[in-house]
Structure formats: C-alpha cells, structure tokens
C-alpha cells in the first residue's frame, strides 16, 4: 500500500484558476455559485435531518459504524465527549482566525505544492466538481512549524 505522500506525488493537483482572497471579495463570482441546497433534499428529509452527533465517551465498534455511516450519508459529523478541553479548542479557534485573517500575499508563502500534502490552498477534492468551493484551507499532515514560520516570521511560537 502506498503512503499518502506517495499518492499525492503520483496525483498532483494543479490550480487552473487563481486563489481568491475570500476576505476582500465584494460579490461571489459565478464560478463559486452552487445550486441551492434544497435541490438535494426533499422538504420532508430536510425538516427531519440534522448532522450526526457522535459521542466518544465509550469508543466501540458501534462508534466506528456511526462514523462510517455519517461519512457515507452526510460527509460530516460532530464529535462530542472527545476529552479535548474547551480552553484548547478556543485557543485553536483563535489561532485559526489569525491564520486565515492574514492577507493573501502572506498566505501564499505557505502554498501547498501540487504534489504536496501540507500547506495553504484549496481542498484536494476541488477538481472533481464543476463549481469552485468557497473554501480555503491549511492542511497539516506533519509539523506546521515551517509553514507558520513563512506566514508569521516574528510570531510563530504559539503554533
């Protein structure tokens, strides 16, 4: 079995459009406009649906099945009773806000290579869709320290 690094090297993702500065846009470009969510669910399903919530208070095979089902049916889920302190979550949110509030010219300094895993950029699944995702991300698969040094050379210790 190949490592994730090798798979990414074998299947690079090349940007066919410039990265948009989502913080400064005044209107949504047509390339980012997706059909309304209502087109995917009928009214009854939408009314009775919510994102799955999965508790890790007692990890078990059932929890793995819940995660699998949530990923297949929803593509997402919320984890509760995970043991991560609210203080750490708040600190992570604050650091994330700082990171994504940087100007685009600064974020580009940590741009993920087409065959890379870590760095700033679009979701690797972006090429599979006809519309662009309203998304920017900073993928971390190893230590983010080198990327953060590029982004915040004078204030990277918190990361």
UniProtKB/TrEMBL annotation:
Signal peptide per UniProt: none
Highest taxon listed in the record's lineage: Eukaryota
Domain Non-haem dioxygenase N-terminal intervals: 51-147
Keywords: Iron, Metal-binding
SUPFAM superfamilies the UniProt entry points to: Clavaminate synthase-like
GO MF annotation list: metal ion binding
Annotated protein name in UniProt: Non-haem dioxygenase N-terminal domain-containing protein
Organism placement in taxonomy: Eukaryota, Viridiplantae, Streptophyta, Embryophyta, Tracheophyta
